[in-house]
Structure formats: structure tokens, C-alpha cells
Amino acid sequence: MADGPKIAIPFIAAALCSPFFFAAEHAPAATVVGPDSYRAAIAQAKPGSVIELEPGEYNGGLLIDRLSGTADQPIVIEAADPSQPPRFLANPGRNTVSIVNASYVVLRNLVLDGRNVPVDAVKAEGHSKFAHHITIEGLRIIGHGSDQSIVGISTKCPAWGWIIRRNVIVRAGTGMYLGDSDGSAPFFAGLIEYNLVVDPRGYGIQIKHQVARSEDHGEPIGPQTTIIRHNVLSKLDNASEGEMARPNLLVGHFPRSGPGMNDRYAIYGNFLYANHTEALFQGEGNVALYVNLFANPFGDAVHIQPHNDVPKAIWLFNNTIVAAGSGIVLRGEARSYLRSLRANIVFSEGHALSGAYPGNLIGEYRDVDKYLVAPRDLPGRMNLRLKRAAARNGAGRLIPRESLPDVDRDFEGLPLAEGDVGAYARGTRLLDWAPSISIKPAVRP
């Protein structure tokens, strides 16, 4: 790994980015506690409580059991000093952060050190009936890689309205595993953004398929969108092989009928890098995949294929894909599910898109340097913009009329126009951020 990209993993003090940030003049009085007093303070928390944890090592875990804030007054548990985050040490037999029947809780700016103990870092427990409107922000999760089944952030009960933002997960068994393997614990209406997942054994992020939804605990009924945006998921090293190999990101289907059947994923602005044994992305159900960067110097990039069900409604547009294997693989009856496949840049080997999909810029992997600025450089120096001459000859962009978030913006938040192809708008401006193994800076509004 001496020649691999350098990984910038700073601790993220993200309080000001949270929708639950209170202006100082309106902030409730905080309760400041340490390793000897924090559990009692958390157990007594009420709507609007702000519990600040002093620097130090915490050995007793963090139990969020039957804690309920409100939309206007969440319960906030955070570092008293984000520059000296409290460090929670894992112990055998219990997950470090355990969430049971909780709602409107914010957890922010902590270090969770697994110490290679076989427990999860954050888990909405399987015996919980619900966990909704939970914010997990600015955590650094390390030492949770003793087995592929060990997870950084996991939900095993019905979970909706979650915000998972600006967390760093390093060499976990699995970065995020949201939902249960049998489809009985739906995760939906979530926002997963600006996270960095580095070298997991299995998935960087997986959202499981869903069998059905209930309305027992106030779950929303109408169509919902789960947004996955501006994340960096790299599997350059440490990945499992053979039957245990997994994509960087996989999303499963929504319920086949009833509430949730018309939900969808909006997946955009992400940088997915390197996978020796699997595709970077795999999806089924209802998925909009746009303005992402996919770079895999070892294999495939995007697979749309049956997993636990089949693809239902798929939009693929304005992605930039550079893959030593296949670029875009469409399995099953593509005519029945493909809603858009246009304005992508795809340089790959094998499974080249045919003339049946006009409006994309397609080429062989060996020719990618002729069209993109620095596509083979390591992250941090990589530049997947079109060269100026190629940009003038780009395929046409047809802006989708679907009500997708930020559908008219490129990878860096600039406006896209008719004729733009790939994840970047045309122009000669330098990159705001060279794709790297670090937290992506906030894009311009």
C-alpha cells in the first residue's frame, strides 16, 4: 500500500451543518457530564435536552433507550469540545451505541473505538419496535473490522427519517448495513450524505430490500425518497474475496405492493472508487443514479440487476464512469425498467452500451486519456473532467422532468445545461475538489 492514495481522515466537527443546530441565543442550557455521570444524564433526557460529553474515555457504552425528542426540540448528545471528542470504547456483549424505541435524537462528534471486539458501533436493535428521526453526525468509527458481519452503523428495526452525515468509518467489517437480511426492517426516507467509508471488508453501504411497511408507529404512508449524496466509498484495500465480495454501494428494492412500493432512491454527487472483485454499485427497484463519479481501475462500475427482486424504474444520467471492467451492466428486461440512460461518460472494457442508447459518450478504457484530463491518476490528483476539445463535442443532455433533488446541478453544484455530458458542467474552471479519499467538501447551494 506504499504507493496507494493518502487518506485524509480528520475528525469532523460538523455541528454547524446540522439542521438541529440552535443559534446561541435560543440554545437550551447544556448539561455537561463526564465518564462517571453521563449515563444518568442521558437516561433522564427530555425534549430539548442538550448533553455535552467532556473529553475522556467512556467504557459504559451509550444507551439510547425510549428517548424521544420532538422535531422542534430534539435530544442532543454531543462532544463538549469537538476538537477533543469523547472516546467510547467497545466492550464484549453489547453494541457501543444501542438505540431502542427512540425518536428525534441527535448524536454528534464522538469517536467509537471497537478495539476489534465483535460488536457494532451504532445499532438500532432488532428487538426495538422503531427508531425514527435519528441523526448520526460527525462520528469517527474505528476498530470495528474483526469480521465482515461487524458494522459501523446498523439498523435492525423499522427506521425512517434518519440523517447520517459527515461520519468517517475506517476498515470496518461493513460500513453501513441498513435494514435486515430478510427484508423485515425497512430503512426509508433517509438522508445519507458527506460520509467517508474507507476499506471495509464488505459493503461500504448497503440498504436492504423491504418486504412490507406497517403504520403501527406513525410511519409515513405516501411515496418517500431516500437520498444518498456526496459520499466517498473506497474499497482499494482490505476487501473480502470470493463469495464474500461485496459492492461499495448496494440498494435493494422497496415493498412490491402497498405503502412504500413507489419509494425511490436519489443517488447523486458520490465518488465510488476501487473494487477488486465486485462492481462499485449494484441496484434494483426504483433508482435514480446521476452526477456520480465511478472509477474502478480493477473491474466493473455499475450493475443494474435483480437481487431480491428486479429493477423497476431506473434513471441513469450524467455519470462519469471509468472502469477497467464493464462500465454499465443492465440485466433482466431493460426495456421494462429503464427510464433514462443518457448523457453519461463511459470508458470501459466489455458490456459497452450499444447504439440503442444514444446521447452518451462511450469509449474504450485504453482511450480514456484522450478525453478526460487525468483519469488514471490516484485519488487526490485524479481529474475526470472532459478535456476542452472533447467538451465541445459532447453528447446532448436531456434534462429529466422527474422531480429529483438537485437534478440540474453537477458534481460540484454548478448548473448543468442542455448538451452537458458526464458529471461535470462544461467549462475551463479548475476543480473545486479533486476526487480523493477524504470527506467531500460541501457543494455550493
Describe the protein's architecture and organization.
- It is a single chain.
- With 445 residues, this protein is mainly β.
- The chain is built from three helices and 38 strands.
- Mean pLDDT is 91; it is low at 6-26.
- The chain is 3% helix and 34% strand.
- The protein has a single domain (29-367), classed as Single-stranded right-handed beta-helix, Pectin lyase-like (Pectate Lyase C-like, 3 Solenoid).
- The longest helix is centred in the first third of the chain and has 6 residues, at 38-43.
- Strands 1, 2, 5, 8, 11, 14, 15, 18, 19, 22, 25, 28, 31 and 34 form a 14-stranded parallel β-sheet that branches. A twelve-stranded parallel β-sheet has the order 3-6-9-12-16-20-23-26-29-32-35-36, with no helix packed on it.
Q: Report the total helices.
A: 3
**Gross geometry:** globular
CATH top level label: Mainly Beta
Q: Largest sheet at a glance?
A: 14 strands, parallel
